[in-house]
Amino acid sequence: MNAPASDMTSVSDFIAEPYVTQGSTVIDCNVKKIFYGSFLAVRDSFVPIEKNKITAFIGPSGCGKSTVLRSLNRMNDLIPIFRFEGTVNYHGQDIYAKGVDPVVVRRYIGMVFQQPNPFSMSIYDNVAFGLRLNKFKGNYDEKVQKALERAALWKEVKDKLKNSGLSLSGGQQQRLCIARAIATEPDVLLMDEPCSALDPIATRQVEELMLELRERFTVALVTHNMQQATRVGDTTAFFSVDISQGGRTGYLVEMGPTKQVFEDPQQKLTKEYVAGEFS
Amino acid sequence: MTDIDLTAPAAPAFVRPNLQRQAWEGRAIKNNILTGITWIIAILAAIPLISVIIMLLMQGGSRLFGSDIVEVLTALPPAGFEMGGGIGPAIVGTLVMVAIATVISVPFGIMAAIYLAILGRTSQLATYSRFLAKVLTGFPSILAGVFVYAVLVINFGYSPWAGGLALAVLMLPTVVLAAEEAIAQVPQRMKDAAFGMGCTRTQVIWKVVLPTGLPGILTGVMLAIAGAAGESAPLLFTALFSNYFLESLAPVNNPTASLSILIYNFSGMPFENQIELAWTASLVLVLIVLVFNILARLVGQPKA
Amino acid sequence: MATNPFERAGSSGTITRPPSGGELTTDSVFRGIAYVCAALIVVLTALILWELGKEAMPAISKYGLGFWYGTTWDVNKGVFGVLPEIWGTLYSSLLALLLGGVFGISIAIFLTQDFIHAKLAVVFRTIVELLAAIPSVVYGLWGIYVLIPMIRPGAEWLHQHFGWVPFFSTDLSGPGMAPAALVLAIMILPTVAAISVDAFRRIPYKVKEAAYGMGTTKWEAILKVMLPTASSGILAALVLGFGRALGETMALAMLIGNANQINLSLFAPANTLASLLASSFPEAGGIEVQALMYAALVLLLITFIVNVAGLAVQQYTVRKFEGKA
């Protein structure tokens, strides 16, 4: 595979053009290096997340798109050998600065995972979990109903809120997890391939949901499915993986408005990928 | 810190959140206290073991690791005010009875495990046997003694066979369950390959399943032996106790010494010498149990 | 005409052949033996029940249900009742469960929820396993010469200052409920810890991720998500630990004092069914053996019920995670 056209040296020195946002930026993510132990997983990726937009991360397997997403609310801190170099500015504060509590970060920046992961408690308690966690004082029933309505699950579960969250189908479970995540109205919602375990019908429901969520939240979405990125993404960041140095290091190749990335990519690699020449 | 806004629509003027760690916030304090308690509990739990080991080495080690070692390991136990003496008959008795228990329980246990894991895995007999084996692992060990008393001792008197049988009753469920698990872990594709070559079920078991599952089976056997060696309750009224060496294995009234019963008998005696010997016997017993525990780990390691 | 379709193949230069008669006979004999051995477990259980029942029958017909609530054990008068022993068995086991349960569950949390480096966790796990490897009789010896002298000053102080509390209403003169229950707690700790560790390990990683993703602190995740999710497995650990405690014999026979009395005091001597058997059986004769057989049957019944309950909870847990609730 050739190096991208604009880059005359080699893949391992390539750094994408910084994307200049049009609206206001919620998270300014500037990855210098992400390590797992001594393994360099991601390098030099500048990914700003715009307010009230859906930013889609695409790229081949192993390109580090999930790793970058999970760095945005310090989920990677659960992995002891994880090391982050760079800055992630959230409303102007670096969440990797000394003294920042990752627990607080995760309350503002919520997450929906690849596999539906409801807790083994009732549907109601799953949604109310975050409210209780944040010591919310007010009408729980109303908040739970609203979150379930927004997650397009209310009609299906309103008569069985006491049933276990695990008794639902896979698609329902994922929407329950979304309801759980949005019940506390976090500022930003990170979604890590939320539809990969779902059938096409459930996928469509979740995509419609994302478009609605955009009105109130800011969404960052990792997807393996390029059509999904074109359907819901306002902005798209394309990552690729560099194997020239012996390892598998992910890096940002191109970021821009979705329409531009798919119809008029600036990089040869992007063009090949969106044309489906490799995956 | 600022509350998360749950009511305002889309919050036009977003309050910049404070992300700093708040050391004196209730959440952080609770977190630290609970972590502290957990550490203390973990350390407290290690104290009894350390104390037992220190006592064994100090009280029992002085006789065992000194010039008396030969006498301690081979001599007869001392009477009343007598000095010196040893635990020879008890060591022999324990080893003989554990050997009898192993010879009885291991073949039956492995064969039963083969049935439970392969031949009749889903049969009704397997369901019942598996369940009862689990129930029997929690069976009070003294009841094994009562059972053997009722079937053997009443008619034939105390003997190493009665003691060994009582230990075998306790070992059997452990061996069965461990061997079943080891056998069940042999990958199906290996069995499929053997069946595909036209092996009979017996051949599949002998040539593929048992050799592959052997480390796991041996681990279970070693752990069962370690457990049996340390048992005392089932021997109380099956083997009883004796001050002399076991002279024959004839199935007649033939009370047999064991380390654990020696410890029990000597622990309540008002003589320094006997109490010291009880500690020495404890150390020897713990070492025997440890050897089998270590063997269990060694044989369980996959071959390099 | 029926012919063996493989016969021609066999004669045309290939080395395959059907299994010989000997191999087929071995196969069926071997399978027969395995069947008999599996049946042996059922037979053994039945035989234990039958033998104990048969030997206890004279006592059962003679003392009937009164045996359960009688409080005297007098060989000379021929009066036998095991209520003090049932009380002692349940009381010592409950105390041990309380202590061993708190410790066992805490240690399971300590070992599974990222408190220590994986290598250090192995060291701690080995320590817990070693606790289980030490023979009961050695714990008894340790209890007599280390534990009782150690807790005695504290027990005396409690009795002097808080003697009006029923738990401290007597003096610790030597053996008694407190040292017995403490040693029992140490002995069931490995059982509780090991089964609880399994319960925590069975929780999928994604559940932990979900909890942290919601912005929980470590202990919020443990108390609000991990513990409830593992709760049925932990319940099984407690019930099975309780079953272990009920049947434990030697350490108790050496530490509890073998006194036929019902007393709430932690420092009073008491007795349990198993230690009654251990201390009386070797010298018993005739009528007392029959009464002891009845006592053994009572113990068997109690432990059987508790163990079956524990196994049922455990099965339910496994099914909940594998098959779906």
Write up what this structure looks like:
The complex is a heterotrimer of chains A (279), B (304) and C (325). In chain A, α3 (123-133) packs across α4, α3 (123-133) runs parallel beside α6 (170-182) and α4 packs across α6. In chain A, 51% of the residues are buried. Chain A contains ten helices and ten strands. Chain A has helices at residues 65-71, 102-108, 123-133, 140-150, 154-157, 170-182, 200-213, 226-232, 258-263, 268-274; strands at residues 25-36, 39-50, 54-58, 82-90, 93-94, 109-112, 188-192, 218-222, 235-242, 249-257. By secondary structure, chain A is α/β, with parallel strands linked by helices. Helix content of chain B is 69%, strand content 0%. Chain B has ten helices and no strands. In chain B, α1 crosses α10 (272-300), α5 packs across α6 (160-184) and α6 packs across α8. The radius of gyration of chain B is 28 Å and the shape is flat. Residues 1-12 of chain B have low confidence and may be disordered. Chain C is mainly alpha-helical and 325 residues long. In chain C, a hairpin with a 4-residue loop joins β1 and β2. Chain C is flat and about 90 Å long. Chains in contact: A-B, A-C, B-C. At the B-C interface, α1, α3, α4, α5 and α6 of B face α2, α4, α5, α6 and α9 of C.
